[in-house]
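FAQ: What does the model actually see?

It sees only this:
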Amino acid sequence: MNTATCRLFIAVELPNALREELTVLQQRLKRDQPPVRWVEPNAMHLTLWFLGDVSGDQVAHLRVALMLAFAGQQAVRVQLGAPGAFPNLQRPQVIWIGLAEGETHLRVWYDALARRLPSLGFQPDPRPFRPHLTLGRVRRDASAEQQQRLGAALRSLKLPSDHVWDLQRVVLFRSDLRPEGPRYTALAEVDVQGSGVRGAA
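And it is asked to produce this:
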């Protein structure tokens, strides 16, 4: 019996070409040297469901839930959309890029998880699901003026291209928080339109 807990979330893995495009957007925002902790390119992903601290005994059940949720699902074609921030562009704390295409289909994926995870004790977030790609998090010591300048930079940010990408891999990640930034480890993967679930013991 494994009673140790780990911090888990379920996310869509991004193609390298999409990560490169997001990195271009980061570089454009970095020109004014805003007080932001940027997400490393290899850590970029699209979160579907944050699970929180989970007992090790639950991992096997989560693998099965992933397999059942995504059996018969189709890949999602996405295109980058407008930038945004939580809670808003006047006081940005988390900066992100939205989607111009694919949001509706990603909600189908989210709903598939919502039919499987509550029976394991994981309830949906009461807030509406808003798929987005996080670029960075504003530092707590950022002044109001710095936040306003960053919000203005986000409003004027131009996308580097109108490329589209197919998303087809969903991953159960463990998140280890470290001083240099979080480290993500894949515990299980499901290839949509693929051959099932894979994962380490």
